[in-house]
Amino acid sequence: MLVAFWQVQRLTREINDLEKRAMDVRTRLSNHQKYAGILGGSSILTLGNISGLSAELLPRASLFAKYSDQASSMSAMQNLQYMKMMGLTPFMGNPMMQGQYEMSAFMNFKKEALKALKQQEAATLNEVEKEIELELNSIEQRIKMKRAELESCKQLAAKEAEDMVPSFGLR
Q: What's the rounded Cα separation, in Å, for the pair 157 and 151?
């Protein structure tokens, strides 16, 4: 009889631990989805729009923000230089208009490079989200199995308790 009660207690603890892990994994998944939403939303990542991320993702997001800004600027500069070298920039005659045209081209190149970098980061996040979802599904399956086992043990414990009650010859 004590074995069945011990099993009920053990399974209850295991289920509680698994449910806590599932909750933690759901939080991680939610945080990754929030970061992916930030990536898809604004054109430039700033401290203001990544400050609400979890402690797990904030360092990654801040490094990506710095890297993406620098890499997209470098790419835009290279593309602008290539345009100049190949003679693809029209000669405006007016240095101010020439500068505005080149700045506009630079900003367009930067925007495109930034978009590509954000798509790469989002694809990486998508893979991580899939792994987290697999982990969550595994935990939820284990919880279901443990709950079924717990019900079985509870029924066994109830049956054993019923059998242990003295009948005093009244059965």
A: 10
